[in-house]
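Hello again, I could really use a second opinion on something today. I've been staring at a protein lately and its backbone has me curious. Please have a think about how the structure follows from the sequence. I owe you a coffee for this, so here goes:
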Amino acid sequence: MERLARISLCLLAGVAAVSCVAGRSPSRADSAAAVDKLFAQWNKGDSPGCSVGISRDGVPIYEHGYGMANLELGVPITPSSVLSAASISKQFTAAGILLLVERGRLSLDDDARKYVAELPDYGQPLTIRHLLNHTSGLRDAFALLGLGAPREDGVSVNDQIVGALGRQRALNFTPGSDYQYNNGGYALLASIVQRVSGQSLRAFAEANIFKPLGMTQTHFHDDPAMIVPNRASGYHRNGSALQLANHAHDGRVVGNAGLFTTARDLLRWEQNFADVRVGSPALLAGMQTATVLTTGERVPYGFGLSIDNYRGLRAIGHGGGDLGVRSYVVRYPEQRFAVAVLCNVDDIDTGALTQRVADVYLADSFTEPAAGASAAPSRVSLSSQQLESLAGLYRDPSRGTFGRIFNRDGKVIATTNAGEEGDMFELTPISATRLVLAGTPVVLEVISVANGRAQEIRVTGDGPKPVVMQRVTASFTPSAAELRAFAGDYVSPELDVTYTIDARESGLVVHVAGRSDIILRPVFPDAFHGAAVDVLEFSRDADGSVTGFTVNNGGLHGLRFDRITRGT
């Protein structure tokens, strides 16, 4: 039995079974062949793909490119190909802030308003530390920009973010009390680096991080017109067709993103955590320390880094994703092993691929079996009545956010908004009351039922703590006259924008200067769902007249609009 289990584990890792049966670790050639097999589906002349780097003890042990850096010119990906790393950027922004802390230029517990005076006084400190570990409670700046009127006056996105956050009068939660991944907070950190050091994030990182570490092909891309040698184009798959990705923020925002790099350079950075050349051991240890909320709850996130466990081994890493790119870099510190994967198409699970690479090289180190080595929970078939029991709109009362479960072609589908569009995920039923998101730790469990319908669903594995979603039971089918009562002009000083709402036969439509119209469909009394806004909830005065509305989506809630004119 032990021998069969060992063969099974090796096959799962993609390693030649003969090496495992012989009781020895796979050779370097066997390991390379196993990695090649993992990326074989993209290693074609008509496909974008990935650049992969693997190191042990700071020494590259395998580097390879798979697929094409540019499909139009027929240029292949190599270990020297330069790709956008998206959110991997955050750890370098964090390192820049920490270097300034070490030099006495700022403190982690300084109020961010000390350096960004445009921010309002929220009545409680919002510190540099809160920005670094995503506990600031700031509304999502990119969601704010997307809801406002577009600007074409040449103002950088980083400066637009400072302006947008400066107009806000409320937070999503009290700083330090909760965790919510926040890209705008890291764009704000880039502005703080510039204001404190007198250098752009690009120049500061080049002088203080990239150059000392020999990361010669890495930079923060803050100039859209800059020519980047060996740069790979990004691609997006629209159905079965590939399209050249339109990088809307390419060279326009840095801090949360904007890093251009190679897999080889990322391995140099990873080795700095073991053999410190930039910063200090204390600085780097701080980046890798989990966050503790004011509630006492532990969040497995440090400063720009996730603190994970894979098959019993500590794994410190971060992923990135944007239109046309996916990336992941991870280090197993006790094994002095690192993997970097940069891909130029956005439908690749780079995090899972780094784990499969680790399966190959760290087979003798793991203390837990690989996913799939033991029997996975079996899918069960749900009756039409059981499917109907699950379907509906659910709300997280603590955040004001929504999710929907519905049936499509006999499958259970979930969204992270109030509609049936956007990002959709198939859920696998493993019992009448438990569903899982395959390949992830996410579990949905029905914890309350009434009148044959699920009333509360607990979601675990999608964040540092479980979330209880409550069914929205009230329906809303307004008449034409009721719809006309919502028509009018509404202003938001926090967005510096006016929305005009018109009544249509089956709902409402929002007009925003310079933006596509937003179609609103009724979801519950005085509330409508639409793209971008997600849920828009109207308010009334004592006489029942509509006075305004609030916007609630995944990145912000309670954003207020006041009515200034009535429709006709």
